[in-house]
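CORE FACILITY INTAKE
Project code: CF-77B
Contact: R.S. (postdoc)
Sample description: multi-component assembly, two entities in total
Requested service: structural model of the whole complex
Turnaround: standard
Below are the sequence entries exactly as provided by the requester. Do not edit them.
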Amino acid sequence: MKINSNTESTHFESFKEGDQVAFAYFYDQYFSKIQAFSISFIYDKEEAENVTQEAFLHLWENRSNIDSINGIRSFLYTYTKSKCLNIIRHNKVKDRFKDDVLNQKERELDTEILNSISFDVLELTELEHLIHGSINKLPPKTREVFIKKRFEQKKNVEIAEEMQVTLKAVEAHMTKALKLLRNSLSDYITIIFLFIYNN
Amino acid sequence: MISDIIYKYLSNEATEQEVQRLFEWIEASEDNKKHFINIKKTWVITTLSETISTETTPVINIKPKSKAASYLKYAAVFLVLVGLTKLAFDYNQKTKLSKEIVLELGDGRFEYITKNNQTALLNDKGNLIAKKFPNQIIYFGKVKDEEVLYNTLKVPYGKTFRLTLSDGSVVSLNSGTTLRYPEQFGINGNRKVYLTGEAFFEVTKDKQHPFIVNTNQVDIEVLGTKFNVSAYPETPTVNSTLVEGSILMSETNNKSNAILLEPNQMATWFSHSKKMIIKAVDPSFYTAWTKGELAFKDTPFSTIAKIIQRTYDVEIINENSDLAKQNFTGTIKISESSVENILELLKRDTPFNYSINKNTITISNFPN
Protein backbone atom coordinates (compact mmCIF):
# COMPACT_ATOMS: atom_id res chain seq x y z
CA MET A 1 0.00 0.00 0.00
CA LYS A 2 2.89 2.35 0.64
CA ILE A 3 3.89 2.25 -3.00
CA ASN A 4 0.51 3.59 -3.96
CA SER A 5 0.50 6.69 -1.83
CA ASN A 6 2.70 8.66 -4.19
CA THR A 7 0.65 7.70 -7.21
CA GLU A 8 -2.52 8.48 -5.31
CA SER A 9 -1.61 12.09 -4.53
CA THR A 10 -0.48 12.63 -8.09
CA HIS A 11 -3.76 11.28 -9.35
CA PHE A 12 -5.60 13.49 -6.91
CA GLU A 13 -3.89 16.62 -8.20
CA SER A 14 -4.64 15.67 -11.79
CA PHE A 15 -8.20 14.79 -10.90
CA LYS A 16 -8.77 18.23 -9.46
CA GLU A 17 -7.41 19.75 -12.63
CA GLY A 18 -9.97 17.87 -14.65
CA ASP A 19 -7.91 14.90 -15.79
CA GLN A 20 -10.29 12.11 -16.72
CA VAL A 21 -7.63 9.42 -16.49
CA ALA A 22 -7.04 10.35 -12.86
CA PHE A 23 -10.76 10.32 -12.27
CA ALA A 24 -10.93 6.83 -13.76
CA TYR A 25 -8.33 5.74 -11.22
CA PHE A 26 -10.56 6.71 -8.31
CA TYR A 27 -13.58 5.30 -10.09
CA ASP A 28 -11.87 1.92 -10.31
CA GLN A 29 -10.75 2.10 -6.71
CA TYR A 30 -14.05 2.91 -5.10
CA PHE A 31 -16.85 1.85 -7.38
CA SER A 32 -17.46 -1.61 -5.97
CA LYS A 33 -17.13 -0.42 -2.38
CA ILE A 34 -19.76 2.25 -2.83
CA GLN A 35 -21.96 -0.20 -4.64
CA ALA A 36 -21.59 -2.76 -1.83
CA PHE A 37 -22.49 -0.08 0.68
CA SER A 38 -25.65 0.84 -1.23
CA ILE A 39 -26.77 -2.75 -1.65
CA SER A 40 -26.79 -3.10 2.13
CA PHE A 41 -29.67 -0.63 2.22
CA ILE A 42 -31.51 -0.83 -1.06
CA TYR A 43 -30.96 -4.55 -1.70
CA ASP A 44 -30.91 -4.30 -5.48
CA LYS A 45 -27.68 -4.65 -7.44
CA GLU A 46 -28.78 -2.59 -10.44
CA GLU A 47 -30.30 0.16 -8.38
CA ALA A 48 -27.12 0.24 -6.32
CA GLU A 49 -25.14 0.56 -9.52
CA ASN A 50 -27.26 3.52 -10.57
CA VAL A 51 -26.79 5.22 -7.25
CA THR A 52 -23.06 4.67 -7.45
CA GLN A 53 -22.83 6.05 -10.97
CA GLU A 54 -24.70 9.13 -9.83
CA ALA A 55 -22.37 9.56 -6.89
CA PHE A 56 -19.36 9.52 -9.19
CA LEU A 57 -20.99 11.90 -11.61
CA HIS A 58 -21.57 14.36 -8.83
CA LEU A 59 -18.06 13.83 -7.58
CA TRP A 60 -16.72 14.82 -10.96
CA GLU A 61 -18.93 17.88 -11.14
CA ASN A 62 -17.89 18.98 -7.67
CA ARG A 63 -14.23 18.22 -7.95
CA SER A 64 -13.15 21.77 -7.30
CA ASN A 65 -14.65 21.60 -3.82
CA ILE A 66 -12.69 18.55 -2.75
CA ASP A 67 -9.63 19.24 -0.67
CA SER A 68 -7.99 15.88 -0.16
CA ILE A 69 -8.08 12.26 -1.17
CA ASN A 70 -10.16 11.51 1.90
CA GLY A 71 -12.48 14.20 0.69
CA ILE A 72 -13.21 12.01 -2.31
CA ARG A 73 -14.25 9.08 -0.11
CA SER A 74 -16.16 11.32 2.21
CA PHE A 75 -18.05 12.90 -0.67
CA LEU A 76 -18.93 9.58 -2.28
CA TYR A 77 -20.16 7.94 0.92
CA THR A 78 -22.05 11.00 2.10
CA TYR A 79 -23.79 11.36 -1.25
CA THR A 80 -24.64 7.65 -1.33
CA LYS A 81 -25.95 7.67 2.23
CA SER A 82 -28.17 10.61 1.41
CA LYS A 83 -29.41 8.99 -1.78
CA CYS A 84 -30.22 5.72 0.00
CA LEU A 85 -32.16 7.57 2.68
CA ASN A 86 -34.12 9.26 -0.07
CA ILE A 87 -34.91 6.03 -1.83
CA ILE A 88 -36.12 4.46 1.41
CA ARG A 89 -38.21 7.48 2.31
CA HIS A 90 -39.92 7.46 -1.07
CA ASN A 91 -40.74 3.78 -0.73
CA LYS A 92 -38.65 2.91 -3.73
CA VAL A 93 -36.80 0.04 -2.05
CA LYS A 94 -37.98 -3.23 -3.55
CA ASP A 95 -40.03 -5.38 -1.21
CA ARG A 96 -38.00 -8.31 0.00
CA PHE A 97 -40.60 -10.09 2.10
CA LYS A 98 -44.16 -11.24 1.54
CA ASP A 99 -45.20 -9.80 4.86
CA ASP A 100 -45.27 -6.09 4.30
CA VAL A 101 -44.87 -5.41 8.00
CA LEU A 102 -41.38 -6.87 7.78
CA ASN A 103 -40.54 -4.65 4.82
CA GLN A 104 -41.69 -1.65 6.78
CA LYS A 105 -39.65 -2.57 9.83
CA GLU A 106 -36.58 -3.19 7.75
CA ARG A 107 -36.86 0.24 6.20
CA GLU A 108 -37.15 1.86 9.63
CA LEU A 109 -34.07 0.06 10.90
CA ASP A 110 -32.07 0.93 7.81
CA THR A 111 -33.04 4.57 8.09
CA GLU A 112 -31.92 4.65 11.69
CA ILE A 113 -28.61 3.02 10.84
CA LEU A 114 -27.90 5.33 7.93
CA ASN A 115 -28.67 8.37 10.01
CA SER A 116 -26.24 7.25 12.64
CA ILE A 117 -23.19 6.96 10.39
CA SER A 118 -21.17 10.03 9.65
CA PHE A 119 -18.54 10.18 6.91
CA ASP A 120 -16.63 13.10 8.23
CA VAL A 121 -13.30 13.42 6.42
CA LEU A 122 -11.05 13.10 9.45
CA GLU A 123 -12.88 10.18 10.94
CA LEU A 124 -12.76 8.32 7.67
CA THR A 125 -9.00 7.82 7.68
CA GLU A 126 -8.88 6.74 11.28
CA LEU A 127 -11.79 4.46 10.78
CA GLU A 128 -10.26 2.91 7.72
CA HIS A 129 -7.06 2.06 9.52
CA LEU A 130 -9.00 0.76 12.43
CA ILE A 131 -11.07 -1.53 10.25
CA HIS A 132 -8.15 -2.81 8.28
CA GLY A 133 -6.24 -3.48 11.48
CA SER A 134 -9.19 -5.17 13.12
CA ILE A 135 -9.78 -7.45 10.18
CA ASN A 136 -6.11 -8.40 10.16
CA LYS A 137 -6.23 -9.26 13.83
CA LEU A 138 -8.91 -11.86 13.31
CA PRO A 139 -7.72 -15.46 13.73
CA PRO A 140 -6.59 -16.77 10.31
CA LYS A 141 -9.51 -19.06 9.42
CA THR A 142 -12.06 -16.60 10.73
CA ARG A 143 -10.40 -13.84 8.74
CA GLU A 144 -10.45 -15.90 5.60
CA VAL A 145 -14.16 -16.68 5.93
CA PHE A 146 -14.96 -13.05 6.63
CA ILE A 147 -13.05 -11.78 3.64
CA LYS A 148 -14.56 -14.36 1.32
CA LYS A 149 -17.99 -13.35 2.48
CA ARG A 150 -17.63 -9.62 2.73
CA PHE A 151 -15.28 -8.79 -0.10
CA GLU A 152 -15.82 -11.62 -2.52
CA GLN A 153 -19.53 -12.03 -1.84
CA LYS A 154 -19.34 -15.80 -1.83
CA LYS A 155 -22.25 -17.85 -0.56
CA ASN A 156 -21.82 -19.86 2.61
CA VAL A 157 -21.88 -23.18 0.76
CA GLU A 158 -19.20 -21.93 -1.62
CA ILE A 159 -16.98 -20.90 1.25
CA ALA A 160 -17.54 -24.21 3.03
CA GLU A 161 -16.47 -26.07 -0.08
CA GLU A 162 -13.45 -23.89 -0.81
CA MET A 163 -12.15 -24.16 2.70
CA GLN A 164 -13.13 -27.80 3.17
CA VAL A 165 -15.15 -27.14 6.32
CA THR A 166 -18.77 -27.64 7.30
CA LEU A 167 -21.46 -25.08 6.68
CA LYS A 168 -21.95 -24.72 10.42
CA ALA A 169 -18.27 -23.96 10.82
CA VAL A 170 -18.53 -21.15 8.27
CA GLU A 171 -21.50 -19.66 10.07
CA ALA A 172 -19.69 -19.94 13.39
CA HIS A 173 -16.65 -18.15 11.96
CA MET A 174 -18.77 -15.31 10.61
CA THR A 175 -20.56 -14.86 13.92
CA LYS A 176 -17.21 -14.83 15.67
CA ALA A 177 -15.81 -12.32 13.18
CA LEU A 178 -18.70 -9.94 13.63
CA LYS A 179 -18.42 -10.22 17.38
CA LEU A 180 -14.69 -9.51 17.40
CA LEU A 181 -14.97 -6.67 14.92
CA ARG A 182 -17.80 -5.13 16.83
CA ASN A 183 -15.61 -5.12 19.90
CA SER A 184 -12.72 -3.47 18.08
CA LEU A 185 -14.94 -0.89 16.50
CA SER A 186 -17.16 -0.41 19.53
CA ASP A 187 -15.49 2.82 20.54
CA TYR A 188 -16.16 4.37 17.18
CA ILE A 189 -19.71 3.11 17.08
CA THR A 190 -20.50 4.30 20.59
CA ILE A 191 -19.17 7.78 19.93
CA ILE A 192 -21.25 8.17 16.82
CA PHE A 193 -24.28 6.86 18.63
CA LEU A 194 -23.83 9.36 21.47
CA PHE A 195 -23.24 12.16 19.03
CA ILE A 196 -26.46 11.46 17.19
CA TYR A 197 -28.45 10.96 20.38
CA ASN A 198 -27.19 14.22 21.81
CA ASN A 199 -28.23 16.23 18.83
CA MET B 1 -28.93 -18.60 18.30
CA ILE B 2 -29.84 -15.05 17.53
CA SER B 3 -26.35 -14.06 16.42
CA ASP B 4 -26.46 -16.76 13.78
CA ILE B 5 -29.71 -15.35 12.47
CA ILE B 6 -28.32 -11.82 12.42
CA TYR B 7 -25.44 -13.00 10.36
CA LYS B 8 -27.72 -14.91 7.99
CA TYR B 9 -29.90 -11.84 7.62
CA LEU B 10 -26.93 -9.65 6.77
CA SER B 11 -25.77 -12.06 4.11
CA ASN B 12 -29.26 -12.26 2.64
CA GLU B 13 -29.54 -15.96 3.41
CA ALA B 14 -32.25 -15.85 6.07
CA THR B 15 -35.72 -17.21 5.43
CA GLU B 16 -38.71 -14.96 5.92
CA GLN B 17 -39.53 -16.88 9.09
CA GLU B 18 -36.08 -16.24 10.48
CA VAL B 19 -36.36 -12.54 9.65
CA GLN B 20 -39.67 -12.49 11.46
CA ARG B 21 -38.00 -13.97 14.53
CA LEU B 22 -35.16 -11.53 14.29
CA PHE B 23 -37.35 -8.45 14.12
CA GLU B 24 -39.42 -9.69 17.02
CA TRP B 25 -36.24 -10.09 19.03
CA ILE B 26 -35.13 -6.59 18.05
CA GLU B 27 -38.39 -5.09 19.25
CA ALA B 28 -38.25 -7.01 22.50
CA SER B 29 -35.85 -4.52 24.08
CA GLU B 30 -33.89 -1.35 23.44
CA ASP B 31 -30.68 -3.26 24.12
CA ASN B 32 -31.51 -5.83 21.47
CA LYS B 33 -32.16 -3.09 18.98
CA LYS B 34 -28.85 -1.40 19.80
CA HIS B 35 -27.05 -4.72 19.49
CA PHE B 36 -28.49 -5.36 16.05
CA ILE B 37 -27.81 -1.84 14.83
CA ASN B 38 -24.20 -2.02 15.93
CA ILE B 39 -23.66 -5.29 14.14
CA LYS B 40 -25.18 -4.09 10.91
CA LYS B 41 -23.11 -0.93 11.18
CA THR B 42 -19.96 -2.97 11.58
CA TRP B 43 -20.97 -5.01 8.59
CA VAL B 44 -21.66 -1.98 6.45
CA ILE B 45 -18.63 -0.03 7.56
CA THR B 46 -16.27 -2.81 6.61
CA THR B 47 -16.81 -1.89 2.96
CA LEU B 48 -14.65 1.12 3.78
CA SER B 49 -11.58 -0.96 4.28
CA GLU B 50 -8.72 -0.96 1.79
CA THR B 51 -8.69 -3.81 -0.64
CA ILE B 52 -7.82 -6.96 1.16
CA SER B 53 -6.79 -10.18 -0.45
CA THR B 54 -7.62 -13.61 0.87
CA GLU B 55 -4.18 -14.85 0.07
CA THR B 56 -2.67 -15.71 3.37
CA THR B 57 0.75 -15.53 1.77
CA PRO B 58 3.17 -14.61 4.48
CA VAL B 59 5.45 -11.74 3.57
CA ILE B 60 8.11 -14.15 2.42
CA ASN B 61 7.51 -17.71 1.51
CA ILE B 62 10.55 -19.56 0.31
CA LYS B 63 11.09 -23.30 0.54
CA PRO B 64 14.06 -25.06 -0.95
CA LYS B 65 13.29 -27.81 -3.47
CA SER B 66 9.70 -28.18 -2.40
CA LYS B 67 6.57 -28.00 -4.51
CA ALA B 68 6.07 -24.76 -6.37
CA ALA B 69 4.34 -21.92 -4.63
CA SER B 70 1.28 -20.74 -6.47
CA TYR B 71 1.73 -17.71 -8.61
CA LEU B 72 -0.80 -15.01 -9.17
CA LYS B 73 -2.67 -15.05 -12.45
CA TYR B 74 -1.80 -12.16 -14.68
CA ALA B 75 -3.27 -10.61 -17.74
CA ALA B 76 -1.29 -11.49 -20.80
CA VAL B 77 2.18 -10.12 -20.90
CA PHE B 78 5.31 -10.89 -22.68
CA LEU B 79 8.60 -10.79 -21.02
CA VAL B 80 11.88 -10.61 -22.69
CA LEU B 81 15.00 -11.09 -20.67
CA VAL B 82 17.99 -10.05 -22.53
CA GLY B 83 21.41 -10.59 -21.12
CA LEU B 84 24.17 -9.35 -23.30
CA THR B 85 27.83 -9.58 -22.77
CA LYS B 86 28.28 -5.93 -23.41
CA LEU B 87 26.19 -2.86 -23.01
CA ALA B 88 24.44 -1.48 -26.05
CA PHE B 89 25.10 2.07 -25.10
CA ASP B 90 27.88 3.95 -23.55
CA TYR B 91 27.28 4.80 -19.97
CA ASN B 92 28.04 8.35 -19.26
CA GLN B 93 30.38 8.42 -16.29
CA LYS B 94 28.07 10.72 -14.39
CA THR B 95 25.00 8.58 -14.84
CA LYS B 96 26.78 5.33 -14.06
CA LEU B 97 27.17 6.50 -10.48
CA SER B 98 23.65 7.84 -10.26
CA LYS B 99 21.14 6.11 -8.04
CA GLU B 100 18.39 8.13 -9.61
CA ILE B 101 16.34 7.44 -12.71
CA VAL B 102 17.91 9.51 -15.46
CA LEU B 103 16.33 10.73 -18.64
CA GLU B 104 18.61 11.78 -21.44
CA LEU B 105 16.81 13.98 -23.89
CA GLY B 106 17.28 14.21 -27.64
CA ASP B 107 19.37 17.34 -27.36
CA GLY B 108 21.75 15.78 -24.84
CA ARG B 109 20.36 17.38 -21.70
CA PHE B 110 19.93 15.19 -18.60
CA GLU B 111 16.96 15.19 -16.30
CA TYR B 112 16.71 13.42 -12.98
CA ILE B 113 13.28 11.97 -12.39
CA THR B 114 13.01 13.00 -8.78
CA LYS B 115 9.98 12.71 -6.57
CA ASN B 116 8.49 15.93 -7.85
CA ASN B 117 4.85 16.31 -8.58
CA GLN B 118 3.69 16.06 -12.11
CA THR B 119 5.56 18.25 -14.52
CA ALA B 120 5.15 18.79 -18.17
CA LEU B 121 7.88 17.91 -20.62
CA LEU B 122 8.32 20.22 -23.56
CA ASN B 123 10.23 19.70 -26.74
CA ASP B 124 12.61 22.28 -28.12
CA LYS B 125 9.77 24.08 -29.87
CA GLY B 126 8.07 24.51 -26.51
CA ASN B 127 5.26 22.07 -27.31
CA LEU B 128 3.91 19.73 -24.62
CA ILE B 129 4.98 16.21 -25.44
CA ALA B 130 4.72 14.38 -22.15
CA LYS B 131 3.52 14.44 -18.58
CA LYS B 132 5.95 13.37 -15.90
CA PHE B 133 4.90 11.66 -12.64
CA PRO B 134 7.12 10.23 -9.89
CA ASN B 135 6.75 6.68 -11.21
CA GLN B 136 5.94 7.15 -14.85
CA ILE B 137 6.07 9.35 -17.90
CA ILE B 138 3.30 9.52 -20.47
CA TYR B 139 4.12 10.66 -23.98
CA PHE B 140 1.75 11.57 -26.76
CA GLY B 141 1.76 12.94 -30.27
CA LYS B 142 3.48 12.19 -33.56
CA VAL B 143 6.09 13.91 -35.69
CA LYS B 144 7.36 13.78 -39.23
CA ASP B 145 9.78 10.91 -39.77
CA GLU B 146 12.79 13.16 -40.26
CA GLU B 147 12.15 14.85 -36.96
CA VAL B 148 12.03 11.76 -34.72
CA LEU B 149 14.12 12.40 -31.62
CA TYR B 150 15.37 9.68 -29.33
CA ASN B 151 15.42 9.81 -25.52
CA THR B 152 17.19 7.40 -23.23
CA LEU B 153 15.81 6.43 -19.86
CA LYS B 154 18.05 4.68 -17.35
CA VAL B 155 16.57 2.94 -14.35
CA PRO B 156 19.15 2.04 -11.71
CA TYR B 157 19.19 -0.94 -9.38
CA GLY B 158 16.60 -0.71 -6.67
CA LYS B 159 14.01 1.11 -8.78
CA THR B 160 11.39 0.44 -11.42
CA PHE B 161 9.61 2.82 -13.77
CA ARG B 162 6.83 2.99 -16.29
CA LEU B 163 6.73 4.70 -19.63
CA THR B 164 3.76 5.32 -21.89
CA LEU B 165 5.10 5.89 -25.39
CA SER B 166 3.50 8.34 -27.73
CA ASP B 167 1.52 5.60 -29.51
CA GLY B 168 -0.06 4.49 -26.25
CA SER B 169 2.17 1.47 -25.75
CA VAL B 170 3.07 0.95 -22.10
CA VAL B 171 6.53 -0.19 -21.07
CA SER B 172 7.35 -1.20 -17.49
CA LEU B 173 11.07 -1.07 -16.79
CA ASN B 174 12.74 -3.26 -14.20
CA SER B 175 15.80 -2.38 -12.13
CA GLY B 176 19.04 -1.95 -14.04
CA THR B 177 17.38 -1.22 -17.35
CA THR B 178 17.99 1.26 -20.14
CA LEU B 179 15.45 2.03 -22.83
CA ARG B 180 16.11 4.24 -25.82
CA TYR B 181 12.90 5.36 -27.50
CA PRO B 182 11.50 8.04 -29.75
CA GLU B 183 10.04 10.97 -27.89
CA GLN B 184 7.27 10.90 -30.45
CA PHE B 185 6.92 8.21 -33.05
CA GLY B 186 7.19 9.15 -36.70
CA ILE B 187 4.07 9.21 -38.81
CA ASN B 188 5.28 6.71 -41.37
CA GLY B 189 8.11 4.77 -39.85
CA ASN B 190 8.50 1.68 -37.74
CA ARG B 191 8.17 2.01 -34.01
CA LYS B 192 11.64 1.06 -32.88
CA VAL B 193 13.04 1.04 -29.35
CA TYR B 194 16.35 -0.19 -27.91
CA LEU B 195 16.61 -2.15 -24.69
CA THR B 196 19.15 -3.48 -22.25
CA GLY B 197 17.84 -4.93 -19.03
CA GLU B 198 14.28 -6.06 -18.54
CA ALA B 199 10.99 -4.59 -19.65
CA PHE B 200 7.41 -5.53 -19.92
CA PHE B 201 5.68 -4.32 -23.06
CA GLU B 202 2.01 -3.75 -23.77
CA VAL B 203 2.02 -2.69 -27.37
CA THR B 204 -0.86 -1.03 -29.15
CA LYS B 205 -1.96 -2.63 -32.39
CA ASP B 206 -0.78 -0.94 -35.56
CA LYS B 207 -0.21 -3.25 -38.53
CA GLN B 208 1.15 -0.46 -40.69
CA HIS B 209 3.84 0.37 -38.19
CA PRO B 210 5.40 -2.71 -36.60
CA PHE B 211 6.84 -2.24 -33.13
CA ILE B 212 10.41 -3.49 -32.85
CA VAL B 213 12.49 -4.03 -29.73
CA ASN B 214 16.19 -4.16 -30.44
CA THR B 215 18.44 -5.76 -27.87
CA ASN B 216 21.84 -5.50 -29.51
CA GLN B 217 22.03 -8.83 -31.32
CA VAL B 218 18.36 -9.66 -31.43
CA ASP B 219 15.29 -7.90 -32.78
CA ILE B 220 11.87 -8.66 -31.45
CA GLU B 221 9.13 -7.61 -33.81
CA VAL B 222 5.82 -7.17 -32.17
CA LEU B 223 2.42 -7.53 -33.72
CA GLY B 224 0.20 -5.81 -31.13
CA THR B 225 0.63 -7.71 -27.96
CA LYS B 226 1.90 -8.09 -24.41
CA PHE B 227 5.30 -9.53 -23.73
CA ASN B 228 8.29 -9.36 -21.42
CA VAL B 229 11.87 -8.97 -22.52
CA SER B 230 14.86 -9.79 -20.35
CA ALA B 231 18.19 -8.66 -21.73
CA TYR B 232 20.58 -7.98 -18.89
CA PRO B 233 24.15 -7.21 -19.97
CA GLU B 234 25.75 -9.65 -17.55
CA THR B 235 23.79 -12.64 -18.84
CA PRO B 236 24.63 -14.12 -22.25
CA THR B 237 21.04 -14.89 -23.19
CA VAL B 238 17.93 -13.02 -24.29
CA ASN B 239 14.56 -14.34 -23.15
CA SER B 240 11.23 -13.32 -24.63
CA THR B 241 8.07 -14.57 -22.99
CA LEU B 242 4.80 -14.02 -24.81
CA VAL B 243 1.43 -13.97 -23.17
CA GLU B 244 -0.83 -12.39 -25.73
CA GLY B 245 -0.60 -11.70 -29.45
CA SER B 246 2.40 -12.74 -31.47
CA ILE B 247 6.05 -11.77 -31.74
CA LEU B 248 8.87 -12.58 -34.08
CA MET B 249 12.33 -12.87 -32.59
CA SER B 250 15.22 -12.75 -35.04
CA GLU B 251 18.95 -12.23 -35.20
CA THR B 252 19.51 -8.58 -36.09
CA ASN B 253 22.25 -9.33 -38.58
CA ASN B 254 20.65 -12.43 -40.04
CA LYS B 255 16.92 -12.11 -40.43
CA SER B 256 16.48 -15.67 -41.61
CA ASN B 257 17.45 -16.87 -38.15
CA ALA B 258 14.06 -16.24 -36.59
CA ILE B 259 11.41 -17.73 -34.34
CA LEU B 260 7.72 -16.86 -34.27
CA LEU B 261 6.21 -17.12 -30.80
CA GLU B 262 2.72 -18.07 -29.73
CA PRO B 263 1.18 -17.15 -26.41
CA ASN B 264 2.60 -19.03 -23.40
CA GLN B 265 5.91 -19.61 -25.06
CA MET B 266 9.36 -18.42 -24.22
CA ALA B 267 12.18 -18.10 -26.70
CA THR B 268 15.80 -17.97 -25.59
CA TRP B 269 18.65 -16.58 -27.65
CA PHE B 270 22.15 -17.80 -26.88
CA SER B 271 24.65 -15.18 -27.90
CA HIS B 272 27.63 -17.54 -28.10
CA SER B 273 26.12 -20.11 -30.42
CA LYS B 274 23.67 -17.67 -32.03
CA LYS B 275 20.99 -20.30 -31.62
CA MET B 276 17.42 -19.87 -30.40
CA ILE B 277 15.21 -22.37 -28.60
CA ILE B 278 11.56 -22.20 -27.70
CA LYS B 279 9.56 -23.78 -24.90
CA ALA B 280 6.13 -23.67 -23.32
CA VAL B 281 5.94 -21.72 -20.07
CA ASP B 282 3.58 -20.18 -17.58
CA PRO B 283 4.17 -16.52 -18.33
CA SER B 284 2.93 -15.32 -14.96
CA PHE B 285 6.12 -16.67 -13.43
CA TYR B 286 8.24 -14.42 -15.63
CA THR B 287 6.12 -11.35 -15.16
CA ALA B 288 5.88 -11.47 -11.37
CA TRP B 289 8.16 -8.44 -11.15
CA THR B 290 5.61 -6.22 -12.85
CA LYS B 291 3.31 -6.91 -9.94
CA GLY B 292 5.95 -6.13 -7.37
CA GLU B 293 6.92 -9.72 -6.74
CA LEU B 294 9.90 -11.95 -7.25
CA ALA B 295 9.17 -15.53 -8.21
CA PHE B 296 11.57 -18.44 -7.97
CA LYS B 297 11.14 -22.03 -9.07
CA ASP B 298 14.03 -24.38 -8.35
CA THR B 299 16.18 -21.35 -8.84
CA PRO B 300 19.81 -21.69 -7.82
CA PHE B 301 20.97 -19.35 -5.12
CA SER B 302 23.44 -17.66 -7.43
CA THR B 303 20.59 -16.45 -9.65
CA ILE B 304 18.55 -15.40 -6.65
CA ALA B 305 21.51 -13.38 -5.42
CA LYS B 306 21.76 -11.60 -8.77
CA ILE B 307 18.08 -10.74 -8.75
CA ILE B 308 18.24 -9.47 -5.18
CA GLN B 309 21.20 -7.28 -6.09
CA ARG B 310 19.25 -5.66 -8.89
CA THR B 311 15.99 -5.28 -7.07
CA TYR B 312 17.36 -3.89 -3.84
CA ASP B 313 20.55 -2.31 -5.15
CA VAL B 314 22.92 -4.18 -2.85
CA GLU B 315 25.98 -6.29 -3.41
CA ILE B 316 26.10 -9.91 -2.33
CA ILE B 317 29.33 -11.80 -1.88
CA ASN B 318 28.76 -15.48 -1.29
CA GLU B 319 31.54 -17.53 0.29
CA ASN B 320 29.31 -20.38 1.25
CA SER B 321 29.64 -23.21 -1.25
CA ASP B 322 26.74 -25.22 0.17
CA LEU B 323 24.39 -22.31 -0.26
CA ALA B 324 25.57 -21.75 -3.80
CA LYS B 325 24.42 -25.25 -4.75
CA GLN B 326 20.95 -24.89 -3.25
CA ASN B 327 17.80 -24.32 -5.28
CA PHE B 328 14.84 -22.43 -3.94
CA THR B 329 11.17 -22.05 -4.80
CA GLY B 330 8.88 -19.31 -3.66
CA THR B 331 7.52 -15.79 -4.02
CA ILE B 332 8.55 -12.54 -2.39
CA LYS B 333 6.52 -9.37 -2.18
CA ILE B 334 9.16 -6.75 -2.85
CA SER B 335 7.51 -3.90 -0.99
CA GLU B 336 7.02 -5.95 2.14
CA SER B 337 10.40 -7.67 2.43
CA SER B 338 13.82 -6.30 3.09
CA VAL B 339 17.00 -8.12 2.09
CA GLU B 340 17.46 -9.14 5.69
CA ASN B 341 13.97 -10.64 5.81
CA ILE B 342 14.88 -12.76 2.82
CA LEU B 343 18.24 -13.85 4.17
CA GLU B 344 16.72 -14.80 7.51
CA LEU B 345 14.23 -16.99 5.74
CA LEU B 346 16.85 -18.72 3.59
CA LYS B 347 18.91 -19.30 6.70
CA ARG B 348 16.21 -21.44 8.23
CA ASP B 349 16.67 -24.15 5.64
CA THR B 350 20.33 -23.80 4.82
CA PRO B 351 22.15 -22.37 7.81
CA PHE B 352 24.68 -19.70 7.06
CA ASN B 353 26.10 -16.54 8.55
CA TYR B 354 26.09 -13.16 6.97
CA SER B 355 27.24 -9.67 7.74
CA ILE B 356 26.11 -6.37 6.32
CA ASN B 357 28.44 -3.47 5.74
CA LYS B 358 26.68 -0.47 4.20
CA ASN B 359 25.25 -1.98 1.01
CA THR B 360 27.38 -5.08 0.86
CA ILE B 361 26.29 -8.40 2.23
CA THR B 362 28.86 -11.09 2.81
CA ILE B 363 27.68 -14.64 3.31
CA SER B 364 29.94 -17.09 5.05
CA ASN B 365 29.80 -20.64 6.29
CA PHE B 366 27.91 -21.62 9.38
CA PRO B 367 30.37 -22.57 12.07
CA ASN B 368 29.93 -26.15 13.25
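Facility notes:
- Chain A is about 80% helix and 0% strand.
- The longest helix of chain A spans residues 167-198.
Invoice: internal transfer
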